[in-house]
Structures are given as C-alpha cells and as structure tokens.
Write a structure and sequence with these properties.
CATH class: Alpha Beta
Oligomer: single chain
CATH superfamily: Cytochrome P460
Number of domains: 1
Number of helices: 5
Order of helices and strands: HHEEHEEEEHH
CATH architecture: 3-Layer(bba) Sandwich
C-alpha cells in the first residue's frame, strides 16, 4: 500500500468516526446506513454499457415500445473487464424509455422518447443489509418512477425483481450479453 492510499484510508476513517457514519454508509454514496437506495443523478456521464429494445407486442405493431439504456461507473466497467466480476459498490442504472416507431427512408425505425423510470442495482459483496428487503443475492435492487425519483417503488426484491432476473442468475443476476463493452 502506498502512502497516498494509506493517508486516504486514514482520512476516510476519521471522517466516518467524526460523522458517526457506518462502514455500510460509506460503501456507496447511493445507499444510507439502513440500506435505502437513492438514484444517481449523474449516471448519463458514466460508462454506457448497452441498450435493450423492448419489442412492441400489441395489435401486430412493428418496432419497439421501449428502450432500456444501461450505465455504470467507468471504474466498474474496467474492473469487470479485468476480473469478470462486478466489484463491491458497483452501480448499474437501467434507464427506462418509451419509444415510437415511424417509417423512414431506411425502413421502419424506433426511437426513444420520454423517460419512464430507472432500475438500479448496487453490488453488495458483503451482505450488509440482511434486514432490508431491497437487498439480497449479492445486490441492492430498486425501481424508481419518473413521477417520484426520490423514492423507490420496490418493496421486496424477491417479489418485485427476481422473476425477471432469474434467467441471468448464473451471470450474477445481470444480462451480460447486452453489454459488449464489458468483454475483455
């Protein structure tokens, strides 16, 4: 450990002691000491991982009914490319967007319109929040709607999130195939 890292650790420890903050609060700026998750406001400046197109499924429509743009911190993407794992405290933000489809000279195209909400996952390699129903299986899970981005609508990740993520269980609950920038 070099002197800069040691000094940083000492300063952080002193700040935690002085403020009464716990180690759980310090592992992510988007999580409080009880495990409540907040939405990162600056996520669009992070590393873009990829987009999922959600196919239209009503009345034989063509195109997409929505897009899911996914972002993470640049250091998370770099760590994943090196280790093949998400580091403790990694944040994934899935931005949920509505879509419209129109004819253009290139054919039928779909494009994103307004934001509907955000799905947030925060890696917790230590199992810090055993009594909080937003946390488990190595992650914190939260869905925020655009009309109230300060409060998650998720009540229990097992009931609200796992069913959709079950097919990705072997990949740490994340659909890695949609994120080409994570490949080595």
């Amino acid at each position: 450990m070099n002197i800069l890292h040691a000094a940083t650790g000492l300063v952080l420890g002193a700040v935690l002691l002085a403020t009464g903050a716990s180690a759980a609060e310090s592992f992510s700026p988007y999580v409080d000491g009880k495990g409540n998750i907040s939405m990162p406001r600056d996520y669009r400046s992070w590393q873009f991982l990829g987009t999922w197109g959600v196919a239209a499924d009503e009345n034989n429509q063509v195109g997409s009914k929505g897009f899911h743009n996914v972002y993470t911190q640049p250091e998370t993407a770099s760590a994943f490319r090196t280790t093949g794992k998400f580091p403790d405290g990694a944040v994934l933000v899935k931005e949920l967007l509505k879509a419209k489809t129109n004819s253009m000279t290139t054919g039928e195209i779909s494009y994103a319109t307004e934001t509907e909400g955000w799905f947030i996952m925060i890696k917790d390699a230590e199992g810090r929040f055993k009594d909080n129903k937003l946390w488990g299986d190595g992650w914190g899970w939260a869905l925020f709607k655009v009309d109230n981005p300060a409060n998650t609508v998720t009540k229990d990740y097992r009931a609200d999130c796992l069913a959709c993520h079950q097919p990705a269980k072997k990949d740490d609950w994340v659909y890695l195939r949609g994120y080409p920038v994570l490949k080595k």
